[in-house]
Design the sequence.
């Protein structure tokens, strides 16, 4: 749909389309509403950085909208969908790429690739935080750099692309965005909590106990403080943006501290 009076180029210059404005015009002046400017910038970024172009711009903007932006529908439903699509694509690719690996190793690779940390790393590599829409308070609280939020937005983008173009496009995008993450799973290492459980069992020690020692931060950007105990060994504490992340970090820290005992 044409949007009148949005751009003004130098005399004699005619951009082929709105996404080519930056290449054909010297100094661009956007004259529409803030929402229109945000949409145009998001579409240009999605095309040039993510390599996708949705036929329904509303899906793109929904995928980039945090629930704190109460004037628009948030990404939560798209994130629910994208999470499942990401899992299916990664699982299928691992099954085909490692035909001789047992289920246990495939599972460890899978959990690493679909983890919140990996999704957030993908988001940062593609500058997703610069285009997330949220209210001023959420932004001031560091929402644009939250692993939880960035990971959720990446999954929402996958969901939006699937709705707009189907499995093939969504799968291609996942493989392209995740191509830089393959090094993280080359050795298929055990998850720290699983490794700690096995460590304790092999030494006849008690089962690891994780205690939630505290929670701070805003509702949309929480910080969890976990204390980990294994028998009479000195406890270890760690923090994370989710309880699971804090427990994982605590398990890793415990192995680094007591793994030689």
Sequence:
């Amino acid at each position: 749909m044409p949007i009148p009076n949005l751009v003004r180029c130098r005399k004699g210059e005619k951009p082929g389309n709105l996404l080519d404005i930056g290449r054909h015009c010297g100094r661009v002046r956007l004259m529409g509403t803030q929402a229109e400017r945000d949409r145009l910038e998001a579409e240009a970024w999605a095309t040039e950085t993510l390599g996708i172009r949705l036929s329904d711009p509303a899906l793109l903007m929904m995928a980039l909208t945090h629930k704190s932006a109460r004037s628009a529908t948030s990404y939560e439903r798209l994130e629910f969908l994208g999470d499942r699509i990401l899992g299916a694509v990664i699982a299928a690719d691992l099954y085909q790429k490692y035909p001789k690996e047992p289920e246990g190793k495939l599972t460890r690779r899978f959990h690493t690739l679909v983890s919140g940390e990996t999704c957030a790393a993908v988001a940062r590599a593609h500058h997703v935080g610069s285009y997330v829409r949220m209210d001023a308070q959420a932004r001031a609280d560091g929402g644009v750099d939250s692993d939880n939020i960035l990971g959720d937005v990446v999954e929402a983008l996958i969901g939006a692309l699937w709705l707009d173009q189907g499995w093939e496009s969504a799968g291609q995008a996942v493989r392209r965005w995740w191509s830089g993450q393959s090094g993280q799973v080359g050795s298929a290492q055990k998850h720290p909590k699983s490794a700690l459980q096995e460590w304790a069992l092999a030494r006849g020690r008690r089962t690891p106990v994780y205690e939630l020692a505290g929670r701070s931060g805003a509702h949309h950007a929480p910080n969890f403080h976990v204390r980990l105990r294994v028998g009479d060994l000195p406890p270890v504490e760690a923090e994370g943006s989710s309880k699971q992340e804090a427990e994982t970090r605590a398990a890793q820290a415990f192995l680094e501290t007591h793994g030689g005992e």
